[in-house]
Amino acid sequence: MGNAEVAGAERAALIETFERLGPGAPTLCVGWTTDDLLAHLLVRERDPIGSPGILVPALAGWTERRMEVAKRQGYAANLARLRAAPGPLDRLMPAIASTAEYFIHTEDARRGNGEDPRPAVAAREALLWRWLGLMGRLFVRGVPSGVQLRTEDGRIRTLKKAAATVALTGAPSELLLYLSGRRSAARVSISGAADAAAALRDADLSL
């Protein structure tokens, strides 16, 4: 399965999850329902004015206003737009980035409603492991301790070196959820020095 196929499968899973849960369902994103999450995705991939605030805090207020505009279109209409095709901004993104985005937000909706993790897909896990290699250091840049990622099949990726190191062990998809701030929902184990583990738990992992 190629990268584009993996991204397409994750987008299909995201759409299916939105269809099944419907509007007003809780998510892992604090204060957001599925309506908000759907609007966020549409702004991200279709709104060149609103999307910069997703990554630039100074513009976040403008992004929120654009999300409110999108929400006024209604859940069904917004879902139809998402289902139709990826937006122009999304098509500019590499498949590996879209896969991570779709996976995280699918699990935001699913696990926010008490659902268990989906079965592992080897191609997806391989792609997300590569994504952690590209982006992992950004997630942990504010962590004072060393951070190491370990998969259950023995792969190791060191994101940050320090005298005291904490190791996160789990599937690449679960490691991604943890590092993207979904700590309570991620199926990972933590080992290492107690102070290093505490520093990781307390750190702001946002991009």
From TrEMBL:
> Source organism's superkingdom?
Bacteria
| Protein name, entry field | Mycothiol-dependent maleylpyruvate isomerase metal-binding domain-containing protein
The cross-references to InterPro entries, in alphabetical order and at most eight, read: CHP03085, DinB/YfiT-like, Maleyloyr_isom
Q: Which residues form a coiled coil?
A: none
Record SUPFAM superfamilies: DinB/YfiT-like putative metalloenzymes
Q: Which organism is it from?
A: uncultured Acidimicrobiales bacterium
